[in-house]
Queue: 4 jobs
Job 1
Amino acid sequence: MTHIGTRSLDMSSMQEELVRDRIQTLHREAEEQRLATDVLRLRRARRDAERASTRLRHALLRFV
């Protein structure tokens, strides 16, 4: 194989590695985004549950 052919293979291999790294990074970022979204959803659900509990407590106090 010639020097040019070897260099072409090296560049192709390097490009494939860069593509694999980018794909892994995108997967990792997507997972981080899913986790962040889940945390926000959980916080919102807890806040809503606390508000509902407060409303229920006030409603029950009116009957006492």
Job 2
Amino acid sequence: MKLSLCTTGFKEWDIEDIIKWLLPLQTDVKGLELWNKHIERFQEKHGPLDKLAKLLESNGLQIPSISGYTTFSKLWNENEHRNEFNQAKRLLDIAHQLNCPLIRTFAGHIASRNASPEQWSETATELKKIAQIADLYDVDVAVEIHYDTFADNIESIHKLLQDINHPRIKLIFDGANLYVDQLDPIEALDSVYSHVSHVHLKNYHYNHKERYKNKPAPIFEGDVDNVRLLEELRKRNYSGFVSLEYFGEEGVPNLHASLEQVRPQLTI
């Protein structure tokens, strides 16, 4: 396994600032999972993408994924849907240029149990269209497992994969997102592992009655058994990236602690 960081937790920073912050801490991080807005900001300041590629390469960093915020479930809003589709195509082109294997998307903007048959069918159809375009770029489209989306439990994930039915559609596994709805991450990993191309790792002390009062915690101190999750990934010889993902004011200190905790646990 290889360790990376999600830059979505550093929205106000530039990529150069994230790298400067990261490098003195330790040498185990091998990748940056880039938020699409960070890439846009870099291009506005510096121009061609080959400059970004050289910056990352010179610092020993790969790009395991590019994180967009598309859902493909708001087809009633023609402008928003067109913007999402165009964003996804642009990210596929960027990923190809930067030798990044996948782009991140969400599937739907509401919980799977609340999706109408029409919403579900439309979203699956649109994701299949994007997957067909992705094939031209030799880049995968990874649906993040996330609460309040169509990929929020084992059954809905399998149905989504079956309905899209395209080999370019992969999964980003996030056990902490499943635990929001009190689902067992290990059971889910067992069921969907063959489709997993990337992993997010974070932790919380959960408040299941008021989920937005969840308190972030270092990866081995919250309610999710991330030690066991990493053990299960090792058993399956998972060789991809695991991205630490933290947000907000408490993000940086929890990220610091998580980097210290993960060093002896990961075989980098």
Job 3
Amino acid sequence: MPPLNRFALSCLLPIALIGCQVTSSVNKEPIEPEKVPCWLQTPVTADRIGFIGTAAPLSATQYGSLLASRQRALASLINHYGLPQIDLELSKVTHSASNVTLNNGQKVYFSEPYITPDTLYSYASTSELTSVAQCQTMQCNFSKCEPSWLCQKNQSSVIGVSYYTALAHQQIPMSAQNAKTLAGYLNQAQVNVKEQLRESYRTDEQSEAKYAINLSRQGDVSAQQVEQPLLMTSSCSYGSTLFVNYQASAQERALSNPINWRVNQEFEGKSVVLGNFGEDGTIAPDNLLSSAIKYAIRDALVELAKIKGIEISSQSTLVQNNGRYFLNHTHYTVQQTVSGQLLDIQIDYKDGLPNIYVWLLEGN
């Protein structure tokens, strides 16, 4: 058998899932960043609000993919503006006309499709695209807060995250669904948890000391259901994971200088708390970053609930017999309704597994 090129094989083994990634160690020439239509990564700009629709690139019917993607983009536009008779408006879409006129007289313009091997994208806006600018694909850089919305959040925005979906063209819709889930936690969450902290200290006749601490948590953090549509404003990629910034309303309250509130743990008289997931080597059951971020936000919400109110009971035992033994057992009960504003997300890796950190600002 001829010698193989040198390859590195790394495998993750989550519950009921085995995934392996093969990477070559052979040096390659630098790859020029891919360019895409700018509207694909920034559908909303200072002078245009637009909406993206997706479909599989191949269809059993002629022009089926193009029609489906245009109709989905138009449906997002109609839902955003709260217009009636959505089925009637969608029936006006054709493959040949680059615009439609809605019942209220408003014209909606469609872009030429952008097609990848697994997805066909269409863009719809009430402003005509006179030219199609090309932009380099945007990569998420959490250490540098690039793009800036990863760290400088405002009161009405939330991040939606999606890994590759079973059907690739569903990645953007899945990010919107995950964003609604996170928005529900941030708008209002009911925290009902019990924690137990067990500390023990032991010495023997040989003066050897042993100290142990264990914290366990039981309970649930339930989210409020979000019904209103979210507006996709911009996106970036982190490996195969898509991060999307969604806007819930026009209300904005920009936060600057994230380092200050990280150090002071306070902003405008309100508490800023840190939530995390994965520090102890655990991974989400589905091995997805979107789930890990959700668990980190739930952890931060528990910390916010503790600030609002907590019931504590503690029992300590001290025994001296050929040495000394001390045991402290503390119970924490938290039952609060809280809300928060997502300020920042950071992702680090340890032993190949992601550690997620989120900072939440105490809500009203």
Job 4
Amino acid sequence: MMIMKRSAVAAAALALTLSVPTAAHAAAPSPAPAAAAAVPQVLPMGVAVSALPLALENRTGYQRTSFRHWNAGDIPADGCNTRQEVLLAEAVEYPSIGPGCTLAGGVWISYYDETSVTDPSRLDIDHMVPLAEAWDSGASSWTAQKREAYANDQGQPSSLVAVTARSNRSKADQDPAEWLPPSAEALCRYGAEWTATKLRWGLAVDEAERDRLFDIAAGCGGTDVEFTPAP
């Protein structure tokens, strides 16, 4: 089955065909071709795990402040930051929105622990691959702008997920070799979404992490990993 949470991934954009310049404009430079949109990838989970680069982790120099969040979100004009936009996107019953994008009411399902939540203050927005883990796995070499894009990534639904504060803080910055969701029903989805996030951002895995992901994949036959390379 395909792992998707909020919205379908957009189809790849068609490449633009440039017309041949006329003789009168032969001396003028040709316009650069438009960049093609990233093409969504769908792989069986075991194949997706095999595609992850293997590397030792290194946390030297990590600071949470190296990843600016939450920013103004995908729709700056809506007055909601990334956290609030994710809460609105994942609500199974839509909340009311007050001044300053204050949310009240609504219902969410925290899939890590299969818990229904009606108070948005009880929810955390979890980075599927925690910021410290991303730093260890390749983000230490990124620009500040790329780390901000990662920390606020709504371009792939699996990157950010609304879950109970309790489950998110239990997870902390641990990878799947160290922590898995308490709900057995969440295991295949979690393994697939972790893998999708690392593939999207070109992040590596260490040996113990990869082995655990292979173990999960072995018990999740039919689970696909869908990801789109980050811009």
